[in-house]
Write a structure and sequence with these properties.
The structure holds 2 protein chains of 2 kinds. Chain A is α/β, with parallel strands linked by helices. In chain A, 38% of the residues lie in helices and 9% in strands. Chain A has 15 helices and 5 strands. Chain A has a 3-stranded parallel sheet. In chain A, strands 4-5 form a two-stranded antiparallel sheet. Chain B has 23 helices and 28 strands. The longest helix of chain B has 19 residues. The chains are: A alpha/beta, B alpha/beta.
């Protein structure tokens, strides 16, 4: 924005976080004449409010409150949305800040995307609820879930020939991973979640064994979790987890914790940030993002069948958290 | 409704993580991690997360207590302080000032330690002031001063991430200093080899490239063996030895006598493993040593520390970033309490009491004559109380009745005193013996500073008003000092005390409360108001000029197993409790994890004695006997047993010996002989 004459201050505001709070703040500011940049980490604004059923004190459904605001924020002339981006640096002073924003890749050119949805239908897209995803008019490749198969790019190329929207990064990455390690050179490596998704069962087992045995049982991952509503006691029950033991049963402790929030997790990463041992907890949830809790046990192998059945039985008898579907 | 977040420092281990205390309408709600803190990065451990839970515990002392006819009665502050001041004055007049002993506290702030030190020296007139550093790192202070000239961690904690080889000896880092072990694991992730030497298999061992399981008390032999290999293979830093150190010739001769085969016989460590460890350490560009109680708590504690210093200087791993000799201090402010001169032989900043110039400076500032003979240490005070030369003690925030060796002996000492004052937040085991108990404030109710293990000075802030009638320690001590004729005790805030500390202590000269606002930290030496603090010591020259090598021979521990007492007992701490448990045993989340103690015993030994898992057994030493449940494991050597010392109901220190290091006077907590048997009544 132009600097206002005289005082050197800028008439624009950056709102960090596009949840309901951020949206409301952006709307209020925009209405009072400021130009607002609304920054959001995930591909779309809205945050977690939509996952609530009722809201206090009127018992309105949360979407009834949220959706008009989403539309308004999206269309307001004074609001510019910057999604799929994160704040890296802030400098300057009150009235005149400079910020550095990291825009994450979408792997899709949204100006060219026609919203055909064929990419989401491709066989290896790893999406459980394909039909639900069809309405998507602009698609984003979720880095965490992408297993680099490249099928989506091929589908897009086939449909749109000359003017395809999917960038060929996904395809290139797949080729890159297929190269023997010594030929990969200094190229960009995959994210941790992608690496884990590509591991075979044994190395995946070893990976989790190594990572999770660092746990010092501080309960930070649970305490920091914004969706941990279950007041249940498996983690504090001597039948499940032996008290006073470090590391606590690997991987049972983390499986129980992950299971309890399976379909509530908003992938905020607070658990990982709170971990004093740098365990990549977020990766577990990134993998769970698209997989049912049952398959989480395949994601983290090493649990014997007996314990697995015991765990599933216990959770089903205690349906504080529904287990039928993920998300 | 009034909600506030108060930035303060965790009251448990020496890591010194900054935390926010959540306060709502004057009531403490909980702890919030501080993400901008360099130490914790917003990732405190379980103790830090629950640090607020003991503060409002119903057991808190809310008013002064006086013992009449063997029972505690509530009393007023005026009466309690009158009794304390008149009794102490009477004993001082009748038996001389040296008949009074003062114990300061590594849990209290720097200001309070300085004030109690001043009270002991200027008002009572004795150098008999000490604190629990005697029981943990006294040998570090003595040893590293002899070798380097400064008895503190040489490097800062975040630097550990950048090191090329980490050697951890005698430290259960993962359980006792979780945030330091995070740095160790990050360095390992970068590819730095991790060497762990410990008689007990600690959680960190699972991540070690090399694990040296040596017999307790053979540290000198182990380190001499490492140095032998380093010199034999020409991995020593010749330039560093020539330019920065002295006394190498004697050391070279001495370590020739320790070939790996001989060391292997003494320590029980395989010679090939030893050679591999020596090569890892010797070849690393930047190598860092971390050590703790496993090195210091021996009758050869000072010699162990000197050996560690030898090893670091031999390879030139001192005075550079990410290297160094890093003693991990146990208590949140044990470094500060030492810096503040709560030790019998030094004033603040390690200025010796028998140095004329230093004494003159303090005499001038305080306007009184000061005693010049170094006073008694904690361990010596116990003996002096029993033989009658020590008549009264003033204990601030310590629980020697669980932490000191040979508790039965110590309890005898406490009960033979004519007058005992304990100033604490709970009625601890030691306070039961007191004639007067003064209720003090916890860390959340007062202002001040703590000094973390890597010499970082940080602000502690008041979050809530004092509970009940309790008062901050600095107010209690200065009121008492005024009653006993102290003239310069008119402080209005701890900030003023810090000004006095800065004016008398060169290494703290640039530190003030204002500079520590908003979570800023300063690591001493900080020599002037503009000085940015010091991240690592000895960068161009050692504090004493040149580093000193000491040729050291391996000596056996004072009490080894024999026919009658066939097991070697070593003691230590666990993740979920803290020291004598005065605070942690009142935190439900921690107590649930670890409600009572146990004895770790090797599977083979257990089989021989037909002990089963969880069975209650009796452990006896020459000094006492306890009953405790067995925990059978492969993580400990056959013939060695381990008991954590947190628990009053099965206190390891009933068994430990009073043998002390001749120089540092630190007791040998890590080695003593015991026997184990099953009691038929409980069998």
């Amino acid at each position: 924005m132009e600097k206002q004459k005289g005082n050197g201050k800028v008439g624009a505001v950056l709102v960090v976080g596009g949840g309901i709070g951020g949206i409301q703040a952006a709307l209020d500011l925009a209405e009072s004449g400021y130009y607002v940049y609304l920054l959001e980490k995930s591909p779309s604004i809205g945050g977690v409010m939509a996952q609530l059923d009722k809201t206090f004190p009127t018992n309105d459904c949360s979407m009834c409150i949220l959706s008009p605001k989403l539309v308004e924020a999206g269309r307001h002339l004074n609001i510019q949305l910057i999604t799929n981006a994160e704040l890296e640096e802030v400098s300057g002073e009150e009235g005149n800040f400079r910020v550095k924003i990291l825009k994450k890749p979408r792997y899709v050119d949204i100006d060219k995307c026609t919203g055909c949805g064929l990419c989401a239908q491709s066989d290896f897209s790893n999406l459980k609820e394909k039909e639900e995803e069809l309405w998507v008019d602009r698609i984003v490749v979720d880095e965490a879930s992408c297993i680099q198969c490249g099928e989506c790019t091929e589908a897009c190329l086939e449909e749109n020939k000359e003017n395809h929207a999917m960038t060929n990064i996904a395809l290139e990455r797949r080729k890159f991973i297929e190269l023997p390690p010594e030929q990969r050179g200094e190229r960009e490596t995959e994210t941790l979640a992608q690496k884990v998704a590509l591991m075979d069962e044994e190395s995946r087992n070893n990976f989790w064994q190594r990572e999770l045995s660092r746990c010092i049982k501080c309960f930070g991952c649970r305490d920091a979790c914004p969706v941990w509503i279950y007041d249940g006691a498996e983690l504090e029950d001597p039948d499940w987890i032996k008290p006073g033991e470090i590391p606590p049963a690997v991987p049972l402790f983390q499986i129980i914790r992950a299971y309890r929030i399976a379909n509530l997790c908003v992938n905020c990463g607070m658990c990982e940030e709170a971990c004093p041992m740098d365990i990549p907890l977020r990766t577990i949830h990134q993998l769970m993002w698209r997989q049912s809790p049952e398959s989480v046990f395949e994601v983290i192998p090493g649990l014997d069948r007996k314990t697995k059945q015991k765990l599933i039985k216990r959770v089903k008898e205690n349906p504080m958290v529904k287990v039928e579907t993920a998300r | 409704m009034n909600c506030d977040f108060v930035l303060t420092v965790c009251p448990f281990c020496g890591c010194g993580c900054q935390l926010y205390l959540e306060v709502m309408d004057g009531e403490l709600m909980g702890v919030l991690p501080c993400k901008t803190d360099e130490m914790s990065e917003g990732k405190p451990c379980i103790k830090g997360r629950n640090a607020a839970d003991f503060i409002s515990h119903p057991d808190r002392l809310k008013s002064p207590l006086v013992k009449r006819k063997g029972k505690f009665e509530l009393t007023s502050w005026k009466e309690a302080l009158d009794i304390v001041s008149s009794q102490l004055s009477k004993i001082k007049e009748k038996h001389g000032p040296d008949s009074v002993g003062v114990l300061s506290s590594a849990k209290c702030t720097n200001e309070e330690n300085f004030l109690l030190m001043k009270f002991a020296r200027a008002v009572i007139g004795t150098n008999n002031v000490d604190h629990c550093a005697r029981l943990c790192h006294a040998s570090t202070v003595v040893g590293l001063v002899k070798a380097f000239g400064s008895g503190a961690m040489t490097n800062s904690v975040p630097e550990i991430e950048g090191t090329d080889c980490i050697f951890v000896i005698g430290s259960n880092t993962m359980e006792q200093h979780p945030l330091i072990s995070l740095r160790v694991l990050r360095a390992k992730e970068r590819g730095a080899p991790l060497i762990v030497a410990d008689p007990r298999r600690t959680p960190l061992v699972d991540f070690a490239d090399i694990y040296l399981q040596h017999r307790p008390g053979t540290d000198v032999a182990l380190i001499n063996g490492l140095m032998h290999v380093i010199v034999r293979d020409g991995l020593e830093d010749k330039k560093f030895i020539r330019e920065r150190t002295e006394g190498f010739e004697e050391l070279e001769k001495k370590i020739k006598e320790y070939p790996p085969e001989k060391v292997s016989r003494v320590t029980g460590v395989d010679a090939a493993t030893l050679e591999k460890a020596a090569r890892f350490y010797g070849e690393a560009e930047k190598a860092s040593i971390l050590y703790a109680m496993g090195i210091t708590q021996h009758t050869t504690g000072t010699e162990n520390v000197l050996s560690v210093a030898n090893l670091a200087m031999l390879t030139g791993n001192v005075g550079r970033e990410s290297t160094g000799v890093n003693p991990l201090r146990g208590q949140n402010n044990v470094q500060g309490a030492c810096d503040m001169g709560a030790l019998p032989d030094v004033y603040s900043g390690y200025q010796r009491v028998n140095d004329k110039e230093a004494r003159a400076r303090f005499e001038k500032a305080w306007g009184v004559g000061l005693p010049q003979k170094p006073g008694l240490t904690v361990t010596e005070m116990t003996d002096a109380a029993i033989n009658g030369s020590l008549k009264a003690m003033y204990i601030m925030g310590e629980n020697p009745a669980l932490s000191d060796p040979d508790i039965n002996h110590l309890k005898k000492a406490l009960s033979s005193l004519d007058f005992l004052v304990v100033q604490d937040i709970f009625l601890s085991e030691a306070a039961q013996f007191a004639h007067v108990v003064l209720p003090a404030c916890s860390f959340a109710e007062k202002e001040g500073t703590f000094t973390a293990t890597d010499r970082r000075v940080q602000r502690v802030r008041k979050a809530i008003e004092p509970i009940g009638d309790s008062k901050p320690d600095w107010i209690i001590v200065s009121e008492l000092a005024r009653r006993m004729g102290g003239t310069q005790f008119n402080y209005t805030s701890p900030g003023e005390i810090m000004k006095e500390i800065a004016s008398l202590t060169p290494s703290y000269a640039g530190i003030s409360h204002e500079r520590l606002d908003n979570g800023k930290v300063l690591a001493w030496p900080c020599l002037s108001a503009e000085h940015p603090g010091t991240r690592f010591l000895h960068s161009n020259a050692f504090t004493r000029g040149r580093g000193q090598f000491f040729a050291i021979d391996y000596k056996e521990p004072a009490e080894l197993p024999d026919k009658e007492y066939p097991f070697l007992l070593t003691t230590g701490r666990l993740m979920f409790q803290y020291h004598t448990g005065t605070m942690t045993r009142r935190i439900p989340a921690l107590e649930r994890e670890l409600p009572t103690g146990f004895i770790e015993i090797n599977r083979k030994d257990a089989k021989k004695l037909s002990i089963s898992q969880g069975e209650r057994i009796r452990v006896k030493s020459r000094r006492g006997e306890i009953e405790i449940q067995a925990f059978i494991t492969d993580g400990i050597l056959p013939g060695v047993v381990f008991i954590p010392f947190h628990f009053a109901e099965c206190a390891a220190n009933v068994l430990t010996s009073r043998n002390v290091d001749p120089e540092a006077k630190i007791p040998e907590f890590k080695v003593c002989a015991v026997k184990i048997y099953k009691d038929d009544k409980h069998g």
